[in-house]
Amino acid sequence: MTSSLYITSNTVFNQMLGSLSGVLAKAEAHAVARKFEPNVLLQDRLYPDMFPLLRQVQVACDFAKGVSARLAGVEVPSFEDEEQTFGDAQARIAKTLAFVNSLTPQQYEGSDTREIVTQAGTPKEKRFSGHSYLLNYGLPHFFFHVTTAYAILRHNGVEVGKKDYVGTY
């Protein structure tokens, strides 16, 4: 039997990282069509105390790979945050999806009750069952960063809408 957490997480991460890739492609095309440096958009943010677009993409990818790895019971791969261009951001998304899709349903067996500990050994340590970790922690954080990336682009006049955000399902 395939774990419901595998189906839920894998499906969501594929759909939403695919849509994030799509809105980034539209953003780059938007900048080229309006004759300004595309990478300017990567440093824009909604408010001064928020992460810029590029960091939103990195953190969304970090949540997708981290949640998937923890639920599958494998080590979370480390990706350096060296991206500087739209091409780099697209590569980060592709690398994240390759990792997420390398995991098998069998690795998720028992993940709904597996204990997940975040920030172990620190005052911010939290303990979750796998089910609670995915639904109450991992997915909300993941969606926050994907949504904020979309909002930054929309705020900058990139012609994206709900269909772009939702992506292919």
Strand order of the largest sheet: 1-2
Order of helices and strands: HHHHEEHH
Task: Specify the helix fraction band.
Answer: 55-70%
Second CATH tier, the architecture: Up-down Bundle
CATH topology: Four Helix Bundle (Hemerythrin (Met), subunit A)
What's the rounded overall pLDDT mean? Answer: 96
Give the low-confidence spans: none
* Radius of gyration, whole Å: 16 Å
What kind of oligomer do you see? single chain
CATH superfamily: dinb family like domain
Query: What is the count of distinct domains?
Result: 1
The CATH C-level class name: Mainly Alpha
Portion in strands? under 5%
Q: What is the general shape?
A: elongated
The profile of the biggest β sheet is: 2 strands, antiparallel
Which structural class matches the secondary elements?
A: mainly alpha
How many angstroms does the end-to-end distance come to?
23 Å
In short:
By secondary structure, this protein is mainly alpha-helical. It has helices at residues 4-33, 39-42, 53-72, 86-102, 130-155, 162-166, and strands spanning 115-118, 126-129.
Task: Describe the protein.
With 169 residues, the protein is mainly α. It has six helices and two strands, in the order ααααββαα. The protein has helices spanning 4-33, 39-42, 53-72, 86-102, 130-155, 162-166, and strands spanning 115-118, 126-129. It has a two-stranded antiparallel ribbon. Helix 3 runs parallel beside helix 4 (86-102). It is elongated, with a radius of gyration of 16 Å. It starts with a helix and ends with a helix. The mean pLDDT is 96.
